[in-house]
Structures
1.
Amino acid sequence: MEELSIKIRIAEREYPMKVKRDDEERVRTASRLINEKLKSYKDQFGIDDKQDLLAMVAFDSLVEKMTAEESRQGIDQTVLEKVSHLNQLVSQSIL
């Protein structure tokens, strides 16, 4: 897979990166979303310190990831229970 050399900007700092062509849009979108969250926190809380803002964004992003993961696990469990129930119904109808 071909890699591209790109530069992304986060918190007014530029970071050179090598990414797979298929990941370029995702990486650029992630950079944009991080910067939007940084601006939102800066405006909302009046914080100018970049390290504090980055820590808040990292924390918020991890909480969102954990919440999504818990939700996915709940959905997976529900699907497994329904498949198991359907298997029981099929087994009973065959007998």
Note: The longest strand covers residues 3-10.
2.
Amino acid sequence: MSNYKAKIYVTLKPSILDPQGRTVERALSHLGQQASHVRVGKYIELNLDGERAEVESRVQEMATTVLSNPVMEDVRWELAELEVAGA
């Protein structure tokens, strides 16, 4: 059994309007910073224990059923094994 860190990225699908992104874009403009097509998403980190295949399955299920709305959002994730302290 190993320890893993999952990094989950949730973004709106390109066809979905992003009012929060538009607000950020306007705020940046007011500060003299030029940026376009700003999109705002979510970043989630989880630490999980188990065998890699089982952990991957759990992350996939959590990412697609709880942490994102598949109708409006795209989700991708990364999984990295954590170093064991003192090993």
Note: The chain has one domain: 2-81.
3.
Amino acid sequence: MEQLLKKILPPKVVQFLKNRRIKRKNNKLKKLPSLSISQLEDIIRNKLGIKEGDVVLIHSSLGNLNLNCSPFEVLDLLLKIVGENGTILFPTYPKLTSLKFLEAERVFNINKTPSYMGILSELARRHPKAVRSLHPTKSVVAIGKYAVELTNEHSESIYPYGEQSPYYKINNYKGKTIGIGVSTKNLSCIHCVDDIMKEDFPVMPYDERVFDSTCIDSQGNEKRVSTYAHEIEKMNYNIPNFIKKYVESPICKDIDINGMKFFSADSTKLLEKLLSLAKEGKTVYNKKYYRRG
């Protein structure tokens, strides 16, 4: 929506609307019950179902929670919950959309390019034990036992959510996906079904170009990574409504706790369900984007 407004409204008007939205959000946050670190731990363990040894992909926006603890404490809490045998992962996308980032020929530096997927993802990126996947627009950072295995092949396919990606590979470890301060609107792994089915998927969600992007790996070496980028206009869908309509709650569900958003998903069962639905012609995408013939 913000990208659309920037196209049709003067910059000062866009900034005014943005400031007003932030003010409304802050006023709303003040009315929410305070959430302590112990209460958050109870939610993660008992509502989201995360336990020792789990491999968990985490989407988060701590700014949507009325927390009375620091983001550092939240990251430490997540690491404590999964323990030495577990692994936590965060998407670490750049500020620009994938298409704009690649069209601008920006250089992705695995050690320096910041994450714009929330403060928790950026703190994870800076963690001394973090391992980050080499992908210009859909990189993932991982901390834990399987961090290397989950991230080490991401650059090898033009499909950012395909079999070589961490989004898919968590299924090899009975992975889970959760949202902290966000709903399934942020469920990135929903695109795994697109990239697995490829030409058999009802929609071509990508710009037709394959971009050859310059990336800097963890050793400072320059590499070229080829990838697709989503067409922005096709990303106008409602994941929460789709999940509520077609996916059983034990597989994936949105959770509201005192006005604060969370979600939990069994990644493997969700992917199986999405594949089954896609074969029936049911996807999150608008029907007008379906392939013809």
Note: The chain is about 35% helix and 15% strand.
4.
Amino acid sequence: MRSLLGRFWNHKSVAAMAALSFLVTACGFQPLYSQNGAAPAVQAELAAIIIKVKPDRLERLVYSSLVDELSPLGAPASPAYRLEVTLEEIRTGVGFEADDSATRFNFQLLGTWRLIDQENQEVLFQSTSRSIAAYNVVTSQFATLTAEKDAEARTAVDLARDIQLQLSLHFRQF
């Protein structure tokens, strides 16, 4: 074992690894959630967003996930931005029995959203996000309904995370 490590970690490979680490730090790469001065600014911008969605059940799931992602301390007292989200649900059968009854579904959640400046009502950024989760249809209606609701909840969380990531990248550009 020692001879194997000795062959792998010779002086040349250690020098090459050190040189590579210097090159990566010199390229200007900065993680989005680093502890430098820019990341807190992005977090402050995200926390200044008030979220507007329709009061349906699935929209409330997305709303709760967005609050967790954007402003975990609660809604801002004086929001600088408004995030408007419109959702579209698509259920597609992907597994079928011989009698053409579906045994597996893909649940797709599409979110069209836009970030609006509260002061002048200007649309600052708009995009779409998509999330897909699958669930099985079984003989128990309760189990099928539970699996369907779980797929909806997973897509709501994924959609909120995608929106948060796109907004973070948007604010990072400034």
Note: The chain has one domain: 33-172.
